[in-house]
Structure formats: C-alpha cells, structure tokens
C-alpha cells in the first residue's frame, strides 16, 4: 500500500490540491480489488472450454486483488484451481510457478497447454516448464521469433484451435 500511496501522491502533487493520501489509496485499492474487465468472448470461451477441459488459473499478484477481481468477474467456478504468486511464493516468469500448479492438480505437462498474454512472463514460464504456450495476442505484437507457441488474436479463436 505504501508504494501505491507514494505513486498516487506523486501523480497528484502537481495539481496543488490537498487530499487525504491514505483515504485515496485505500479507496483506490478497494475499487481495484472489486472490479473486473473481461475481453470480448471470455465467458463464451470459458463456458465451452470448462466443459471439455480441466482449467486452472495461474496469476501473478496479490491474493486480495486477484481473488477479488476473479470474484467480481464471476470466473472462479470455471477453474479447478486458482494459483496466485503471492500464495505460491513464486511468480512467473519462473517456470516453477506452473510446475507447482501441475503438481497440485496432478496434471501431466505433455497433456497441458498454457494460455497467456505476456511474452515477458507467461511465455518463459511455459517454455521453461516445457508446456506448449498459446499467446493471446489481440494487438498483434511481434512474436514470430519465439519458438514453441501458438498465437491467436481473438478469444473465440480458441474454440477452433482446441
């Protein structure tokens, strides 16, 4: 919270307005933890995939925010397991983050794929854990030089791929 409070203070100090820093920080955090944005097609894709495959969620971040946002989006029920770096003690891009998930769910990496949107965190975690990576790439960032991944730009494309 302290880092967030300093960021807010730095952002607002130039406006010459007095404000209650702790209150603004607390209010922002509460709103952040209880809000969610879903990409177009997310619910439809999760509805279909959750009936055909075992799904888990592995995310970096704080438990309070990530669990709150999953709850706000009403997504928890789609996943057999939700794994958050703060709880695991390891974060992506460390492959151990995914290896722990596989171990806890007794999943075979040869029968597992990892879907993510980050070449910085998700790709090296999946690649290091020897799991095929599917890159959600809605902005079509250049990813051709990365081996062992499948790209898609619309969530609904997954329904044709998998």
From TrEMBL:
<dbReference type="InterPro" id="IPR036412">
    <property type="entry name" value="HAD-like_sf"/>
</dbReference>
<dbReference type="InterPro" id="IPR052550">
    <property type="entry name" value="Pyrimidine_5'-ntase_YjjG"/>
</dbReference>
<dbReference type="InterPro" id="IPR023214">
    <property type="entry name" value="HAD_sf"/>
</dbReference>
<dbReference type="Pfam" id="PF13419">
    <property type="entry name" value="HAD_2"/>
</dbReference>
<dbReference type="InterPro" id="IPR023198">
    <property type="entry name" value="PGP-like_dom2"/>
</dbReference>
<protein>
    <submittedName>
        <fullName>HAD-IA family hydrolase</fullName>
    </submittedName>
</protein>
<keyword id="KW-0378">Hydrolase</keyword>
<dbReference type="InterPro" id="IPR041492">
    <property type="entry name" value="HAD_2"/>
</dbReference>
<dbReference type="InterPro" id="IPR006439">
    <property type="entry name" value="HAD-SF_hydro_IA"/>
</dbReference>
<dbReference type="GO" id="GO:0016787">
    <property type="term" value="F:hydrolase activity"/>
</dbReference>
